[in-house]
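Example 243.
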Amino acid sequence: MISKIKRIDRVVILTGAGISAESGIQTFRASDGLWENHRIEDVATPSAWERDPRLVWEFYQGRRRQLLEVDPNPAHDALVELEQHLDEFLLVTQNVDDLHSRAGSRELIHMHGELRKLRCEECGDVIVAMGEEDLKEEYVACTNCRNERLRPHIVWFHEMPLRMRDIDIAVADCDIFIAIGTSGHVYPAAGLLSVASSCGAHCIGINLDPPQNVGLFDEFHQGKAGEILPGLVSQWIATEDDE
Ligand code: OAD
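Predicted structure in complex with 2'-O-acetyl adenosine-5-diphosphoribose:
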């Protein structure tokens, strides 16, 4: 177990739905999770969008409106504190909510896209669209071209996650890799742990249940992220004066 993280340590964090669970956002694979009530192939693939855009749009509009009702929790805040302690830090999230940025995280990659944004498949424009008009059931039109129907800026199944090159470089170079609240089922995110481990990083897992790749962690802390992460971060960044 590490007891301290030094300012010069290069740290990469990977978060998943579990870190937002205590803010009231459903995870995907729990018994009451999103994928229990919605079939992935109906709402989260490019062919679903082609076949039944109305269903896909309503699914994501509901999730987009939910962002207005939730707030960051102590686990999101603890990662801001950790970032402020370090010279080199990257937070990679699979989450499409905006809770990390609202908490104050700066070096942040949303590898699966962002609910706050919409994208034009005609001209490529990506816009932040969270006004009252943007959150209704009607489609939102592109303001740059004639497309009447922007799509959610979400990486669907069969699509490539965003900024994989930046992520791969940071993970291969890091000293400490910390995965929080992710079940390790979805690739390429799930493969980052084995990359970090094989490149010599110290790997830490924090999760409610042991994820399927738990054996690759050098240390694993079982519990709710909002309850255990603040204490771990305080311990990692404590200076001798604090002790
Ligand atoms: P999952 O729903 O697969 O896993 C969430 C993990 O968080 C589980 O292992 C839970 O045990 C754990 N968990 C739940 N509550 C927690 C808490 N309070 N503290 C810590 N851990 C907790 O979600 P992801 O791993 O994020 O992709 O799923 C990965 C991807 O699959 C998502 O980004 C999404 C989904 O399909 C796309 O939509 C492309």
